[in-house]
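Consider one such protein record:
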Amino acid sequence: MKKHQLFLASLAFLGAGFLATSSNVQAAEQNNTGFARQNDKVYYYENGKKLSGWQLINVNTD
């Protein structure tokens, strides 16, 4: 019975340790040009920056 209690206590201690740790997460930069879909909306990026309003976009019509 003591082994069982010791196992549960150590498991709880380790679980609390995992919950207490933190990590830094950074989003990757977008360096692309073109259309991207986010949350069911479509945006246009030029050199990684989201454009707004009406834009004149070079389109090849070959």
In short: Residues 2-20 form the longest helix (19 residues). The radius of gyration is 25 Å.
